[in-house]
Structure formats: structure tokens, C-alpha cells
Amino acid sequence: MKIVIKYYLSGLTFCFCHFALNGQQSKIDSILTLLKKDKPDTNKVIHTNDLCWEYQNIGKYDISLQYGKVALDLALQLNFNQGIVASYGNIGVLYMEQGDYPKALEYYFKGLKIAEKFGNKKGIARNIGNIGSVYMQQGDYPKALEYYFKVLKTFEEIGDKGQISTILGNIGIGYWYQGDYPKALEYYFKALKMHDELGNKNRIATDYGNIGSVYHAQKDYPKALEYYFKALKMSEEIEDEGKITIWLNNIGSLYTTLKKYDEAEKYLLKSLSIAEQISSLDDVKLSHQHLSELYEALGKLAKELFHYKKYITTRDSIFNNENIKKTVQAQMNYEFDKKEAVTKAEQDKKDVIAVGEKQKQKIITYSVSGGLFFVLLFAFFIFRGYRQKQKANIIITQQKHEVERKNQIIEEKNKDITDSINYAKRIQQATLPNKKEIYSALTNCFILFKPKDIVSGDFYFFHKNNQSAFIAAADCTGHGVPGAFMSIIGSEKLNDAVLQSTDTSEILKLLNKGIKISLRQSDSNESTRDGMDIALCYVDTENNIVKYAGANRPIWIIRKGHTEVEEKKATKTAIGGLTDDNQHFDTHELKLQQGDTFYIFSDGFADTFGGQEEKKLTTKKFKEILLSIQDKTMKEQEQHLNNFIENWKDGTEQADDILVIGVRL
User: The pTM is what?
Assistant: First the structure.
């Protein structure tokens, strides 16, 4: 499931006052008290802007916008340039918080124009930073980072810690979007440290959430949840509904990933409710998207479709044609105003310049007009391209949803198949002998059993017979489901055979016949060729005698204190398939001493690919390993073999089932 994480992109607006840039709820009452005493002068503009900023910080966007516009109107009446720049910046951030980027851009450009006119370095820097944030929202991350680093340098020279910390967080976001998670964490933690020093709970919450998002992307889910809940707790303390809905969304989407669907639904529905109350279109859109993904995972198709349609509708309402027109218009207005100012300045000199200079003025005017025409023409092509891209995106979205629906059907079918195979595994395990029973009869013994797939074509066999026991390692044709069918048939027929005879040669002969009869095998071309290789041992624990018979699988003996492997070879023919009905299998009687060890196994261990050159382990290497671990207990040998083969594979897919049985007398 694709998880879309929502980030809080910090704005860079500012207020010219003795209050901190990023206040909390506790400051609002103090500012209101000051406002009651203020006359309609510059102090009232400053305090009204303070109040606008404080309400924005706690997510009260409607109230914040009212105060922002009151501050702007009064600043314009007083011709208070610093107040005008601050008001434009505050209102721009409000619109950006609500996802109205064209409006945000309009106010940032207005603020930038005033700041440039009066040489206000801080105002210029902060507006450029805000424009960088718009680049970020529009997905041009390298451009956004270019603006942010430029602004960071300026604020470091000025020594403005509040703005430095904000920029550090935004740089972290830029690196996050580009997938550079170590860099993102580096700048997030820098921002967190500085915000902690400033005691800025609002921004601390943002840093916690952003750090959680990086861990989320890195699939470190416990750390992600830890930081999301830290962010949520901090935002709830300061009653910042704007951020609360973001953290609820992130937590809900993560719980969907973790398949904790009840928890996911609780957090996502709560997030949607708050986002709708505060009219945050970005968060409404994201909540619907995450709810659609949740209900898709639950198979609730009606709810999935409902929220998916809501997601598309909300997304289109944010990025519709009118918004694109407004964005282009805002950019053109700024360029036009600058050109108009230049033209007017030239026109003011018309009374003192010669006729030739007047002609130059006309050329300048024509040049400006021509330039503006090309700007308009360029804007037209941009807009037309956007329309075409939007239509293509609608088609792609529809196709994507159709693909997702088909993938869901495939996943459901795969799940059904996997569930069936898992049930087959339970059946196969039920046919295998109980290891406790084996270890009770053969106290120094281990069985290393590692199927390649869910079910296995290898199987081990055990049968207790008074003071002796039968033990076998079998390797059926194939692996996975076909091999598992053969293993169940083979185990059943071997059990029948040991009930009829105690002679290992005779038992394999009976097993061969039983398999051929069960599979109706003959010499005809239509007949199956499936069968198995097997090593069968009859172990007399009282007299330390082992009688072995094998079909293509040997027995290895390592006598106590010896440094070589003694091998008894198997009869070179398989059980079943084309093997003759009356095939004879040789029996070898082995007289062992206390402390001697024998091994029977399938070919899976020696045939495992891995190592630096990704080659087979080989039989020779397998023998060397067994010789090297003779000083270990049988349980320790099993653990050593398991660890070795896992390290040997080192991520390489296991090629075959693995079965190794070791018995020490």
C-alpha cells in the first residue's frame, strides 16, 4: 500500500514587535489587552499582526485572517511600510496553510515589492523564503532548496534564531522529498534543538512530526509512531488543530500499513472531522485518500470508492484551472508593476530630454509591451500545457485505479492460494513424526529441516520398534506443492513397509512397489516419472548396530577421534518412476562404537548457492563442515549448520529443500 505522508511546511512571515515570532495560546490574552489600550497607530498594526500570527499558529485560520486584514488596512492608511510587509506575509502564510497557493503567492509578491522598494533586507529575505516554500509545494525541490540556503545565510548574518530554525526545518523537508533521509534527519534535529532552546512548542511539534515521517519512510515503524505521538501530544497541548489533523493522518496511515485497521480507522476519521471543521483542503484530501486505502485493505469496496471520489474532488478543487490562472496572473502582475515603474520614471524625464531621447523612450515602451506580450504568450502555452496534462492525469488516475482494483483481485486470489498452501503445510506437518518422540528414543540426535517453500518435497521418517528404531531422510521429486504431495504419499507407503518387514533392503523394495502402484506408474509414455531418493537406517541402540539401505542417498559415518568421513554408497536407482518393480536395494550393516556419529540427508544443503561467488556449497565443503564440528553436542551441531547455511545464502534464494539428520551413539 502506498502511504502518502503530509508535512507541515513552515512559513517565514514576521512581526516587528517585542513578542516572539512563534507564540502560543497563552500570549493571545496579553495581546488583546494591549489592543484595547492602543490608539490607531503603528503599535496597533504591530499588535494586530501579532494576534493574526498567534491564531495562525494554533490553526484558527478564519480568526487569524480577520486580524491580518484589519492590520493590513490600518497599515495602508498609516502608510506604515513595515506593517504592510508584515501583514502581506501573514496573510500569505494563512493562504498557504489552507492550500490556496495562488493567493499565497499573490500576497508574497506584494510584500516583496514593498520590501524591495524600501530596501528592507529582512522583508526581502523572508518573502523570498516564502516563495521558496511555494516552489516546495509545487514539487520543484532543488529550486526551493536554492532559495532556502540563500535565505539561511542572510538570517545567520543577522542572527535571527527564530527564522534560522524555521529555515532548517524547511531544508529538512526539501531533502525528505528528494529521498535523502540522512540529510533530512540532520536538519530536522538541528531545527528541533534550536526550537527547544527557544521554547517554541509549536515548532517542536512540527519537528517531531517531520522526524517521525522520515522514520516512517525508512520503515522504522516503532520510531515513527513514537515521534508522531510526541507531535500529537504537543499540538494538543497548544490546541493547534491544523497540526493535530496532520499527525492523526500520519498515525492512521501507519496503522493501516501495520494492519491495525480499527486503530487506523479511528485516527483517520478523527483527522477528517477536524480538517473539515477548519476548512483545510489539503488535509481533507489526504484524509480521504488514506481512508480509501484503508477500506481497500479491508475489502470494503463501497466505502473505498466513496472516499476515493472525495479525494479526487478535493484534489481537483485545490489544483483547478482557476488556481493556475491566478498563479500566472500573480506572476505577471509583479513583472508588469516593475516594468510600469521603470516606464513611468522614464516618462517623467520627457520635458528635459532631447527628441532623440524621446525616440529611445518609445523604443523602451515598445520593448516593454513586446516583452509583456511574450510573457502573456508564454503564460498561454503554460496554461494550455497544464490543461492537456490535467486531462492526461485524469486518464492516468482512472487507469491507475483500475490497475489497483485488478491488483486487489490478484492479491485476493494469491491470498486464497497461500491460505490453501498454509493449510496443506499443516497437513504435511501432521504426517511428520514428532521430534520429541525421536529425541526420546535417540537422545543424541538432531534434525535440520528447512523447506524451500511453505511446503516441502523433503521429509523425515521415524518408527520405534522395541529397543531399535527406523529413521530416514527422503528427497521427493520436485519441491513446493508437487513435492509435498509426493512426500505425503512416500511417508504413508514407508510406514506401511516398516510394518511388514524389519529388513532395510526389503522395506525399500516394498516402498518402491507401493509408490508405483499409488501413482499407477508403468513403462508407458503417459505414466508419471515421479519418485524419491532416500536413506533408511535401522538403529539397534543396545548393540550399537546400524543397518542402512539407500536409493541414491548415502550415509556418512564419522568415528570418534577420526578426521575423515567414512561413506557407504547407496544403490544407484530411485524409488518409483522407471525403477523396476522388483528392484533390489543393498543393505550395509555397520558396527559402531560409543561416540560415533552418522549422518543421512537430502542433496539440498550441499547444493545451496551462496558465498562471494554465489556458487554451490558442494559435497566436499559439507564434509569439511561436519568434521569441524565433532567437538560440539548434536544440538550445537544443528545450530551451527543452520547459521552457516543462512550466512552462506546471504540473501540468495534457497534453491531446494534442506534436510540433514545426525545421530550420535
Answer: 0.42
